[in-house]
What does this fold into?
Amino acid sequence: MTTEENIINAAKEVFVRKGFQGAKMQEIANEAGINKALLHYYFRSKEKLFEQIFSGAFQQLIPTLSKKLDETTDLETFIRFFVPFYTNFIQKNPHLPQFIINELSQNPDRIRNLAATKVFPFPKLSRMITQAVAENKIRPIENEQLIINILALIIFPIVAKPMIEGVIFNQNAESYQNFMAKRSDEVIETILNSIKPQKN
It folds into this structure.
């Protein structure tokens, strides 16, 4: 692991615990096991470090989604790709949802401004949903409702891991992992069943 990667991983931990306002550069340096001068050599400010974490995560996500949406026009095919892909992404970046939720409650403008710089492929997905409705491949549904339904079903079990693992699975980490291993298939079938076309 490079020094920069070490700093970014340390900053993720501190930002999740403290939020942007509460995080201190000295605390991030301590978490990374380096001195503050070296931290400032790599990242001149807390703002730059925050932006690097946010941007870096989505740079892994957006190009792949855009490419897949360019390659297929079939909504079911995309859903069957997207659910396990995004589940895996969030599991590899479990800090990200909490990171965003914390900042939305403390400084929503910061997240909105950062998100505005990312070219999310939502318009492509919206057109695909609209086309599927027009062709009676799925029931009429607002594009935004379907997109949020999919995201929520994926993200909640990861954000709520302490509660699910502790209450539902009685602190059994293996049971939670077994649950998550089946989660993508369950989400796919739940979504596809919920948007089946209406019978005349």
Observations:
- The chain has two domains: 1-44, 55-194.
- The chain has a mean pLDDT of 88.
